[in-house]
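Reopening this ticket.

The earlier resolution said the output was attached, but the attachment link was broken on my side. Pasting everything inline this time so it's all in one place.
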Amino acid sequence: MKKLKKLLSVFLAVLIVGCFCTSLAGQAVSFTPNFEINSAACVLINTDTGNILYEKNADEQYMPGSLVQIMETALILEKCNDLKMQLTCDSELVKRYQATDYPDDLRYADIYDGDVLTVEDLLYALMLTSSCEAAVILANQFGNGSVAGFVDLMNAKAKEIGCTQTNFTNVTGIYDTSQQTTARDMTKITQYALSVSKFLNFASAISYAPETPNPERHKMDEWIWTHSNAMMQENSAYYLEGTKGIKTANLNQQGRNIICQGTKDGNTFLVVLLAAPFTDSEGVLKYYHMTDARDLLKWAFTHFNYQTILSDSTELGQITVKNGDGVDYVLVRPAKSFMSLWYDGADINSIVQEIKLDDNVSAPVQQGEKLGTVTLKFSGQELTTIDLISTTSVELSQKKYYLALAKHFPHTEWMTRAVFLSAILCAVYLVLCIYAHVLYTQKPKTVEPVHLKPKASAVKKEAEKTKKKAK
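Inline output:
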């Protein structure tokens, strides 16, 4: 039963990831906010629909820093059957991954050699503080004794979910020009992680105190980890109600990164920001990654609402129907209504409808029959394509049908074939006639047989024989 449940959960995760990839592949129209975004790259997506509402340099590569730990956490949650499993910190193992020319890029959770913590404890340390100790201990455990092996698993998963410009080289997020990703790929990775059971619990916790007692090393009532995303803290200048702070990252050589989620009025948005500068033009320290994230979420909360772009009752054209019984046309309408999360600063009347109607439509036509398509576009970007269907039925007129058939028959393929076949047969007959005539004219004349006159003696003898017989 446990194996069955595990297989089912894996199947559902793959299915959800597939849905995420698909939704990102077919982007909806994006809009531009009326304020400056300081981060070098950005994606704002509505996770309910998969619509990307705004993007900036979404396919440019940057170092993810400790955002890599989103992928690490998701993989561990998929692989680990017991989050209460205890692990012991090996300082020698951790030190191997602390040796770097960029020590200020590493973050710590005050986990020391010999500390015993559960997998759950370590995952909170990872997501809330970007703990390099937790990153190494967990990767070593779930990489079968190899941190590098776990990095390989991360790269394999990134490829599986459709990331095309991401390469992981370490789990601590330390500066490495070979470790690259994009805002679009990090969006896919985060959506995959959000599909994994319990991930959001770790990603959205404001603070956490380890449950495993280590009283000889720590004052347990003071050992508390707080999420690095200040947007969740009510006493912070960056606070925004409805925010769930998934992960932050800092790289001195590149800038600040952040990924966070926000929900209001039932709409959920995800913001991915990479390479925000540390200071302004005058060298004053700034937290542009948080101001960008806060401003984008407020913009989404305030200016986006679901609107009916095209109703399924709207008549969009008229098609001539041949051989209809009393009716020679039919009206068409969209097969379904189209609703979208729409920016109130964009005029819906500016949406272009590209209508394609079927040609040579003949009765009978059934109500609801597909007779064309309509494609909706805004500023050159495609929103969707919907089938157009008949609003009514049109019955066939037998009289019109047979008259049309007779009128059209000389131009049909069958008529063409008949004429072609007749021409071939006539040609064959003519050739046979010519051939027979030639044979007749070349036949030799019959020669009459020559009858020779018998000699007189022979005649005399014959006459005597006849006399004797008569006597």
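Reporter confirms the inline version is readable. Residues 2-304 form a domain with the Beta-lactamase fold (CATH 3.40.710.10). The chain has three domains: 2-304, 311-396, 404-437.
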